[in-house]
Amino acid sequence: MDIKKVFDNNRTWIEKQLTTDAAYFENLAKGQTPEILYIGCSDSRVTAEELMGISPGEAFVHRNIANMVPNTDLNVMSVINYAVSHLKVNHVVVCGHYNCGGVKAAMEQTDLGILNPWLRNIRDVYRLHRKELNDLTDDTERYNRLVELNVQEQCINVIKTAEVQKAISERGLTVHGWIFDIHNGSLVDLKIDFETVIKNIVDIYKIDSE
Ligand code: CO
Q1: Which of 62, 95, 97, 155 is catalytic?
Q2: How far is ligand 1, taken at its centre, from the CA of residue 187, in Å?
Q3: 209 pLDDT above the threshold of 80
Q4: Is 155 a catalytic residue?
Q5: What ranges do the domains of the chain cover?
Q6: Catalytic annotation on 63?
């Protein structure tokens, strides 16, 4: 790919935006009030805005390898804090995807250097759900299920944070676990029962900031 093409594309995009709305960039520059915080995978095939059919300004986005929310990662924790406490998003989404290379790597026994501690967070998810996963004899089914369970556990990591707990009780913020099915482009809501999830962990993770 000729990198110059990107700048040609950009000029075409500007023209297109201005044709439909002459004040498009003027309005964009005024500020952001996104409704959604989207936490997804860095995978080049899994975009954020495009798969949700939304425009710039509608989602605050964080992407990393395998859509992780490690409790000690200053990057994702800062994104959650800013989106929830300052931008006041109403939805936090963790979106995983089938055929995720990060999840696959965590299921193998290869030494990947600096990626080891990152992927170990996924191995921890495997350990938490070892019985269910090991009962699946089909490798693809087990791989897909780990992708789903990883989304669920990262949603729980979101809920563990004080600012999210506060926003849930004060203004009904909701957390969602989704999967992008790369085989057909569909977005699948895992319909995680967060009420039950929260009930089961609240005594351990509740943080009363008052
Ligand atoms: Co991925």
Answers
A1: 97
A2: 14
A3: no
A4: no
A5: 1-30, 33-205
A6: no
Helices (H), 45-160: 49-52, 74-81, 101-106, 115-128, 130-134, 139-160
The topology under which CATH files domain 33-205 is Beta-carbonic Anhydrase; Chain A (3.40.1050)
pLDDT score, position 210:
57
Give the Å distance between the CA of 96 and the centre of ligand 1.
7
Give the tens place of pLDDT for each residue, 145-173.
999 999 999 999 999 999 999 999 999 99
Active site residue 41: yes
DSSP state at residue 44: T
Q: For residue 88, how far is its CA from the centre of ligand 1 (angstroms)?
A: 27
pLDDT at 50 over 90: yes
- Report residues near ion ligand 1: CB below 5 Å: 41, 43, 100, 102
pTM for this model (two decimals): 0.95
Closest residue by Cα to residue 201 from 164, 147, 170, 173: 164
Q: State the first-to-last Cα distance of the chain, in angstroms, to the nearest integer.
A: 54
